[in-house]
């Protein structure tokens, strides 16, 4: 095993694609940047596709605010990254008001149908929730999220903001190499209609050709003029409900008609002189704050960036945070989620003290409550999600994320609407007594976890988020530490080599680390998978940082996917 690791590291001993170099020093800092910093003084955007970033920046330049820009970018991403997100998926957002300092958050995730009892699944012949197909589909919430965000904060006409998305869906956009590879790798669950569009003849559309979805364009046009009612109370919702019902799912037209988003208070935690804002349940936001609170009990800066001690500590803390997450996180309107106890500083300090500095744990039990068997790790290898963010000339900021969950979601493309349905319903459990057990009109547990940070004076510090399913809290704490502990620029912080704990002692690790780090992790019992290059395994983070001393906005985007940042 050590030989395999040595060979893997030796493969990047010289400059790799980013000009990185690998040494044998365990505390090697970070590599030169792959991309330059993007800076401006008026507005900035970062999104999971260059066409989306351009659309967002154009909105800002025409006098729109951060919410307007995010809606425009979200619409474009629904077209240009169709396997990862769309109007058949869910969304969440955190909003900062530049004038008042008010912070709020929007839960734009959907619920199960009124028929969704455990007996419904058992009668269909399932003893576990299917990962794809009609029984994995809950009501999509993204469109209501766009409309509700616009109603509260938007300033430009809603129809105007969706014009770029409609144009790309109707006229087509150029297929990239990354998109073609994703289609080929993730297209297995697609139904006949989905394969005809995204894998015609069994292969993805050739790179550089135009991919259009005129049916999706028509759906977007209906939403642009009719708002969320056109989706949930009109022909679109009725068509989607009939489609799901015919395939054995639990959604009916009334479930679409009764859907609503929820404005919520974000959870707050203190970390490295910042207030960290995350989504409350039904998301894994509490795991993010628990991970950061436990990290405060360890001398991470003294360990050194990406040293074996440093990475081992974060990996083991992640296991503790996820054990509590998997036991408790669910829809708080339908289950008792003990947030105060989960985030209690004394409890987490004690929990952090149980990390063995010399040995990787195979698993960790939750800190309180019965041990139940529901485990979401491994269901979503890369996290098929897009993150996007904007800051405008008035200091307003939005941190937004939307997703299909797995690659191509449920695999079901409804042909009349052109809408690909997500599979967030796959994250319910049938386990009796679990807070996340499926029930009528209940939101599923969600991995989606956008972040925002405030300075001690309450002003905006940065927005941050990433796709990646279970890797989201892991990636985000590494990026925050890179910036605030190890003095990296935002772009350097995103590009630095990352780990992803995959469950048990299995760890994926980018091979831009030192040989000493890899060997030190192996000696502690971690089963390493070294990964070359810039892959979606480790997410695709984006960030905007505001410097109050200069008024400069610095935007960063991850080369691991198709993200781009722009500012002016």
Your description of this structure?
This protein is of the alpha+beta class and 568 residues long. The chain contains 20 helices and 21 strands. A 7-stranded antiparallel beta sheet has the order 1-20-19-15-14-9-8. A hairpin with a 4-residue loop joins strand 19 and strand 20. The longest helix has 21 residues, at 308-328. The protein is globular, with a radius of gyration of 22 Å.
At a glance:
The protein has 20 helices and 21 strands. With 568 residues, it is α+β, with helices and mostly antiparallel strands. The protein has 2 domains: 2-38 and 265-378 and 450-555, Serum Albumin, Chain A, Domain 1 (Orthogonal Bundle), CATH 1.10.246.130; 51-92 and 107-261 and 385-427, no CATH class.
Q: Describe the strand arrangement of the main beta sheet, using strand numbers.
A: 1-20-19-15-14-9-8
**Structural class, from secondary structure content?**
alpha+beta
Number of strands: 21
**CATH C-level of the largest domain:** Mainly Alpha
Main beta-sheet annotation: 7 strands, antiparallel
Query: Share of helix among residues?
Result: 25-40%
CATH topology group of the largest domain: Serum Albumin, Chain A, Domain 1
Q: Unreliable runs, pLDDT <50, ≥5 residues?
A: 1-28
